[in-house]
Amino acid sequence: MPRSRLLTGDDWPEAELRAAVLAGELVAVGPCWASPSEPQTVALRAAAVAWALRDPRLIACTVTAAWVWGAVSRPPEPLEVCTPAGLRVRVRAEVRLREVRIEDVDVVRVADLRVSSPGRTVVDLLRTPATVAGGFGGVEATAVHGLLATGAASLTEVLDRLAALGTVPMARQAERRLRAVQAGAAPGVSPR
User: Fold this and answer.
1) What percent of the chain has pLDDT over 90?
2) Which of 75, 94, 146, 157 has minimal CB crowding within 10 Å?
3) How far apart are the first and last CA of the chain?
4) Nearest to 127 by CA among 176, 82, 87, 86
5) What gap in Å lies between CA 118 and CA 86, rounded to an integer?
6) Cα–Cα distances in Å, from 29 out to 81, 116, 143?
7) How far is Cα 64 from Cα 78, in angstroms, rounded to an integer?
8) How far apart are CA 55 and CA 17, in angstroms?
């Protein structure tokens, strides 16, 4: 991706970039900025996350991956990343890191970013511990719905992945959450 499509704090002071947003000359693309006429593509969002992470070993996951794939309108704060089990890395406070079992087939390279595949992202979101008291968070539900609605992930793939989980933690909860998302139920409410 041509560097000129995305502006960062490395290019201009952040105060000038924010002033350009106020003037309508730039729009935010996650932690970076671009021209308002620049299409918000998967590659552009991936480049913005890659710039913020600066470590090619990190894998964008969960809501961060959903944002890269275009399923949600904003990236989470902090950015959410994972690494394969056993890999030790340091991240800044603006990054939430999880160590997980992840296969190469579950990782896609977009621009300079490694990102969890859409199917893996849906399963991870469905298995995420509750972010609201007693239920599945609205951001996660929106991300799952967006990944399925855009066709980035197929329902068949997600169901196959969930079935393959067997008895791992949160597998049955993930199935209930998927049914609730499909039914359009409010987050935290399982259809009967």
Assistant:
1) 71
2) 94
3) 47
4) 176
5) 24
6) 18, 19, 18
7) 9
8) 24
Q: Is 28 left (phi over 0), alpha (psi -120 to 50) or beta?
A: beta
Strand, coil or helix: 59: strand
3-state SS string over 129-162? CCCECCECCHHHHHHHHHHHHCCCCCHHHHHHHH
Whole-number Å distance between alpha carbons of 117 and 107: 5
In this structure, the dihedral spanned by the alpha carbons of residues 105, 108, 114 and 119, taken in order and rounded to 10 degrees, is -80
pLDDT tens digits for 19-60? 999 999 999 999 999 999 999 999 999 999 999 999 999 999
Amino acid at 146: G
> Would you give the DSSP letter of residue 25?
S
CB 59 within 8 A of CB 80: no
* Res 126: pLDDT: 94
Q: Report the half-sphere exposure of 111 (CA within 13 A, side-chain side).
A: 21
**pTM passes above 0.85:** yes
How long, in residues, is the chain?
Answer: 192
